[in-house]
Specification:
By secondary structure, the protein is mainly alpha-helical. The chain is built from 3 helices and no strands. The chain has 2 domains: 38 residues; 50 residues.
Amino acid sequence: ISWLFNVTGYRELYSLYNIKHKCMKEFAKEKKNIQLLNIASIHDLDILNNSIRGTETEINERLSTDIEDFYNDEYNFDFIDMVQDDFDE
């Protein structure tokens, strides 16, 4: 939370924005082809997107089974009571 009130953090972010903004202005001034900035081809991006979707699906499937397993677990209340009694003594 203290970082939210740290002015230097905002100054750093602002300076990064200014650097990026300045570079884009320079490209426009020199009439350079913006396509030079596109490093990845569309095919590579499709592969990346499919990989991300596959990973999301795996994570979501694991989460759903974890939640089901959580609700199926039975708590050992006797053990919890025993530990709590030992703690109270």
